[in-house]
Design a protein that fits this description.
2 domains, alpha/beta, globular
């Protein structure tokens, strides 16, 4: 059994590792190869290219790396067409994977895409890239399966693996002890993003917001989890150029420990907001695109949803405050953080809403995904 997978970034690496573990129980002799990260490599994955070469975000940021990305995709397509895997699974990274999936599907290779492209949010015409190119689309949010019901896309809601993992964790007290905090300390965790570009755009604003909060809360401690040493170094470089921020710990560490130790989190929009929601911590969300990317999205009305953070998207209404582009200022963010910390009833209502959403997403996603992939491999997938 040969199972080819392409994961484009840190969150995809997590999904890929969980799926590999579940598939290995069904196919213990399976070979897994393609493009993946450290968590997939730890499960025995053979990565033909470094995953970080695919981790590019933003319309114009991608253009700079486009020749290299196209070369990798061309070479990988040729390799897979020669090797003929039993199934190809593209995990997220739609700009890279959707064309690859179509080319492979047209040559008779079974294809699965894991994580629905956000066609319901922006660039809806991309749905044409899905039609006739997939044997299955694995959706991690319930509203996505509903969206595709009247489309020619075989979509299946499987739940979210993070919900399965994080809903089992309830160690806030132990987490605070890990970082040396007392009950009287107030803890703010900063999560400016997992990509270099995100850190470059957000770090200085988040640091200044934290400084403004410390001026009002003298017992405020700051935590900053970083996904790897490179992003940690990047954040620390920005910190050196900013005004002094006291009582701060920056670590290359699993983010959930610092989230659990927090009273509130300031996060860049993305998978982090889902993680914070699942760990039931209040949050303030911000995001800044490059000026050129933002101009294109606004000029051509590419964004089709009123929210960008996962809690708000899943709920279909605003549960957490969002500050985007020009509104993402240190002053706005710090004021909202202080407001939430001083209004426990509002915070409680937010967390109660999180609890409802968490239950919707907890479905043993790794096993659900493996079940659908195995049906694709064995030609028993139900028609949609």
């Amino acid at each position: 059994m040969k199972i080819a997978i392409v994961a484009g970034e840190h969150s995809g690496d997590i999904l890929g590792a969980g799926l590999m573990t579940a598939l290995a129980k069904r196919y213990p002799d399976a070979q897994f190869y393609g493009i993946g990260g450290p968590k997939m490599l730890a499960e025995g994955f053979n990565s033909l290219y470094p995953m970080h070469q695919l981790s590019v975000f933003g319309l114009f940021e991608v253009l700079k790396h486009l020749p290299g990305l196209l070369k990798i995709r061309k070479q990988l397509t040729e390799t897979l067409l020669q090797d003929l895997p039993d199934v190809f699974i593209g995990i997220d990274a739609p700009d890279f994977n959707l064309k690859l999936e179509r080319d492979l599907h047209q040559k008779g290779i079974k294809t699965v895409h894991y994580v629905s492209p956000t066609v319901w949010a922006w660039r809806p015409k991309r749905i044409k890239k899905l039609e006739g190119a997939l044997n299955a689309l694995l959706c991690i949010f319930p509203f996505e399966e509903t969206y595709f019901k009247d489309k020619s896309v075989p979509a299946f809601f499987i739940g979210h693996p993070l919900a399965d993992k994080l809903n089992k964790i309830d160690t806030t007290i132990n987490a605070r002890k890990q970082f040396g905090f007392s009950d009287s300390d107030t803890v703010l965790t900063l999560m400016p993003g997992s990509r270099m570009g995100e850190i470059n755009r957000h770090a200085a604003i988040f640091i200044e917001a934290a400084r403004l909060c410390q001026k009002q809360l003298h017992n405020l401690k700051i935590l900053v989890p970083m996904p790897d040493e490179a992003t940690k170094d990047c954040f620390e470089t920005v910190l050196k150029d900013c005004v002094n921020l006291e009582r701060i710990q920056i670590q290359h560490i699993a983010a959930e420990n610092m989230i659990l130790a927090s009273d509130i989190v300031l996060a860049a929009s993305g998978t982090a907001t889902l993680e914070i929601m699942l760990l039931k911590k209040p949050m303030v969300v911000a995001y800044k695109l490059s000026a050129l990317t933002a101009w294109v999205i606004r000029t051509f009305s590419l964004l089709k949803v009123p929210f960008v953070s996962m809690p708000n998207l899943i709920a279909g209404k605003q549960l957490v405050p969002e500050f985007l582009q020009e509104e993402a200022t240190a002053k706005n963010l710090s004021e909202q953080i202080i407001k939430l910390l001083s209004e426990p009833e509002k915070t409680k209502a937010m967390l109660n809403s999180f609890d409802v959403l968490n239950k919707q997403l907890t479905c043993d996603a790794d096993m659900q995904a493996a079940e659908i992939v195995s049906k694709v491999i064995e030609d028993t997938i139900e028609a949609r």
